[in-house]
Amino acid sequence: QYGFLGGMATAGLVLPFGDTQPAVARELIDHLEARGAAHGWDYDPETFKLEANELLLEAGVELRFHSTFCDAMMSGNTVEGVVSLSKTGLEALPCHVVIDCTADGDVAASAGAEFSKGRSDGRMQPVTLMFRMAA
Fold first, then answer.
1. Cα distance between residue 103 and residue 109, in whole Å
2. Of 4, 23, 126, 134, which residue is most buried, by most CB within 10 angstroms?
3. Is the residue at 126 inside a domain?
């Protein structure tokens, strides 16, 4: 939905890595450290945006900025694309691979995937902000 990558990791300075996909997170942090833009899991959000953009473009990913997911395009149990909304209106985007980066699993939920939310008592862990101080 923003004009850059990273979601709340760059727009809100929320530390996103945890244990979800440590290999992918480690690769990005390694690239940031090589640029002098990270120390451990602490990183510069502006360089994060640039590095993430470069890595995804190098991998052949077609990026869609300023757009929001609306619906999964299904054929049986297979997601064959998504419908997104941008300032130009609704757009059907057929594709071979869909990566759900909605933070809340919106694509998976729209496709009918089973999921769980929170602990057994329904409570969820809040996000964690990073503290940054300008020198």
1. 12
2. 4
3. no
Q: How many domains does the chain have?
A: 2
Nearest one of 66, 22, 43 to 132, comparing CA atoms: 43
Range of the domain at 88: 68-110
> Letter for the amino acid at 30?
D
Q: Which sign, positive or negative, has the C-alpha torsion 12, 17, 114, 7?
A: positive
Q: Which 3 state secondary structure label does DSSP give 22?
A: helix
Contact 32, 41 (CB under 8 A): no
Q: Which amino acid is at 115?
A: F
Q: Print the SS3 string covering 23-83.
A: HHHHHHHHHHHHCCCEECCEECHHHHHHHHHHHHHHCCCCCCCCCEEEEEEEECCEEEEEE
What is the pLDDT averaged over residues 17-44?
80
pLDDT per position as a tens digit, 36-82 = 998 877 889 999 999 999 999 999 998 889 999 999 999 999 999 99
Q: What angle do CA 16, 18, 22 make, to 5 degrees?
A: 105
In a domain, 1, yes or no: no
